[in-house]
Amino acid sequence: MKKNIIVASTSLVLALAACEESGEHFQIKGEIGGAADKVLYFEASALDGIKVLDSLKLDKQGSFAFTGKRPDGPEFYRLRVGGQVINLGIDSTEVVTVKGEMPSLTANYVVEGSEESVKIKELSAKQADLQEQIRRLAASQMPIGDYRERVNRMVEEYKQQICFDYIYSNPRSGYAYYALFQRINGTLLFDPESSREDVRAFGAVATSWDMYYPHSLRTVNLHNIAMRGMKNTRKPSATPFPEELIREVTLLDLALPDLRGATRRLTDLKGKVVLLDFTIYQNQASPARNIALRELYDKYASQGFEIYQVSYDVDEHFWKTSADNLPWICVRDAEGGSAVTYRVDGLPTYFLIDRANGLYKRNIDIEDTKQLESEIKKLLRG
Question: Any idea what DSSP says for residue 164?
């Protein structure tokens, strides 16, 4: 979008015309009172920093309208007047309405037409409140040890609430992503490098974004962060693997809980042809995919075919309900360690394993369901 400074009424006409010409644009419009003759900037909060997309000089009424091309996944934008900033989230061709008053625009604006933007406003308010509480504690001159203990407790309580209300409740949302990158005093609240619980939160959002927004640059960035965190926080094995078992096993073992809590080991299936499947049931395409897998299972299970299906669903109850009627082995990896072990970089991902516990082929080497069935039959005959 061309950057320019024009009067609000002309900008509004141009913006509306742009929306009529294409259904692939979103619109942000509204009014900002008490800002006559001030410049309103429309900015993108990109991965590589803030970028000015457009601007206009507000008149006495403060009316404005900006348009932008619909992003590949949830994206983040800002309206800025001087030092007052409004953060917004866009994930479709929606029309977002913003109204506010200077000089307290950041704290008192109203936004409509976008759930993402409403949730981001809530998160921003909670973050500002936590920042203020910490500032007051710092000014109280309490002993440094007590101060640190109080701050750590406040931050952990805040993170638990944010995880419950914004991240795990809807990990595919833009506001879940936004929540992960909140900062206090310039430091990330969620540690994606060394905190197991925080890495789990990153993993939950990354898994959902892999499914729903595979072409978004934010998805790639988030996936890399989550994979690095999972690698950093993996628990070392308590005892080394016996050498005689290492010689026998030709694939990396998995030991995960099934629907009844029993540990199911992948290597216990030696002697069968196994489809090792990594998935998430919350994906809208999952039911149809499992129907296709069931046709294969029903056809070849009696000949020695098995499916070991690993779920990354955050909601355990949803996983159990969805997997309850499936005839194969259904396990869940709440911490995502198996994604690192098998270098799962997208979902669904699967591997074919032969009767000798040897990795045979990955999904990228198999074109379609017809070829998958052909490969299964070949391994069963061998």
Answer: I
Q: Count other C-beta atoms under 10 Å from residue 233's C-beta.
A: 21
pLDDT at 1 (0 to 100): 38
N-term to C-term CA, the chain: 60
Torsion sign, CA atoms 195, 200, 206, 209: negative
**pLDDT beyond 90 at 24:** no
Domain ranges of the chain: 8-113, 124-233, 243-381
Backbone angles phi, psi at 256, to 5 degrees: -130, 155
CB 42 within 8 A of CB 2: no
Residue partners of 280: CB distance under 8 A and separation at least 6: 207, 208, 211, 286, 311, 312, 313, 347, 348
Chain segment 281-326, per-residue pLDDT in tens: 887 788 999 999 999 999 999 999 999 999 988 788 889 999 999 9
Asked if 310 and 332 touch (Cβ cutoff 8 Å), the reply is yes
Lookup result for tokens 């070829």: 371
Which residues, 6 or more positions from 262, have their beta carbon under 8 angstroms from its beta carbon? none
What tens digit of pLDDT does each residue of 197-219 get?
899 899 889 888 988 888 888 99
Angstrom distance (rounded) from CA 174 to CA 58: 29
d(CA 180, CA 182): 6
SS3 100: strand
Q: Is the pLDDT of residue 46 over 50?
A: yes
pTM of the model: 0.62
Indicate the pairing of strand 349-353 with strand 273-279. antiparallel
272: phi then psi, degrees, rounded to nearest 5: -115, 160
* Listed range (22-31, 165-174, 318-327) with the worst mean pLDDT: 22-31
Distances (CA, A) of 309 to 39, 43, 124, 275, 355: 55, 43, 39, 8, 17
Superfamily of 8-113 according to CATH: Immunoglobulins (2.60.40.10)
| Bridge-based pairing state of the strands 25-33 and 95-101 | parallel
Task: Measure the CA angle with vertex 352, ends 350 and 355; round to 5°.
Answer: 150
Q: Is 141 helix (H, G, I), strand (E, B) or coil?
A: coil
Q: Backbone phi, then psi, for 123, in 5-degree steps? A: -60, -40
CATH of 243-381, one of 3.40.30.10, 3.30.470.20, 1.10.510.10, 3.30.1360.10: 3.40.30.10
In the three-class reduction of DSSP (H, G, I as helix; E, B as strand; rest coil), residue 162 is classed as helix
